[in-house]
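Why do we bother with holo predictions? Because pocket geometry can differ from the apo form. Keep that in mind while you read this record for NAP.
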Amino acid sequence: MSETLDTVILGSGCAGLTAAIYTARAGLKPLVLEGHEPGGQLSITTLVENFPGWPEGIQGPELIANMKKQAERFGASFALTHLLKADLGVYPYRLETSTGELRTHTLIVASGASARWLGLPSEQALIGHGVSSCATCDGFFFRGKEIAVVGGGDSAMEEALFLTRFASKVTLLHRREQFRASKIMLERAIAHPHIELRTNVIVDEVLGVDEKEVKGLRLRDVATGDLCELAISGMFLGIGHEPNAKMFAGQIDLDEDGYIVTTGNVLTTHNGVVVPGVFACGDVQDRRYRQAITAAGSGCMAALETEKFLEARGH
Ligand code: NAP
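The structure, written out:
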């Protein structure tokens, strides 16, 4: 078996990369397991306007690429692999990855959160055939077409606005009257001539399973129960995310929605007792703020705690 590592970082989004910059700069030679979605949520977003330091904004993928370059400059390594199983019952911790086994003295869990789906069989059957959760990845395929975006938060607004670059019309479907989105994003969507907002509707069925491409949606009015059809060629989900922490169930405390419970900002626990040397940062433990800058901040904290932990053990 290969040597035991000082630290392994799970996830390569904003939190993981910031942890990589700090631990690498401290000489800990971190190994970053890039995971299923390398670069995390920022790598599939467009303009980030609120990350301090870029007065004109910066494209999400560019911000991520810069962070990765910065971490590599200090000696971080990256592996295009993901965690299959963690054994926190042995020390050094044992990690089974898609490319082999690793042992590590510390673990920084920055595995983020993944897009949520409605869960309709017709939706699942048509993923990649007109159903998508990534406007930046798939928007291009809907040039000149009418599409729908589901959701009432900032992600839905951002997707709808972005998709107007391609689609001839975007119908935004939200299940309530009130929007969760920030005022500025909502106002931009309302003001856009190619976006129509429809409230109090849910998607009952995605039409086109037999044809293997989205032909429309059957919508249900939440108040009256009435059904109607909307002819569109694509449906984009912007309904939030699920934390990627299931693989730690039973070894690290998770809350009722599956987020990692942390104490002292980034320390993990098992049955309320701190798990030594295992830290969590970013969206996998943050149900409240979920911003690039807060993820980066907690990544920094996790790295500093890692350093402190190893130092106390004479590393
Ligand atoms: P969110 O704020 O949790 O919003 C999710 C939306 O999807 C809500 O409107 C929710 O409806 C709806 N939804 C959830 N499950 C649904 C279902 N099964 N069927 C229909 N609708 C459903 O998530 P988010 O928009 O991804 O934003 C997450 C965080 O990232 C927020 O803090 C946000 O500000 C931030 N963010 C910021 C930007 C930006 O500033 N550029 C861009 C994207 C995200 P209800 O309202 O009824 O619950």
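Residues 117-237 form a domain with the FAD/NAD(P)-binding domain fold (CATH 3.50.50.60).
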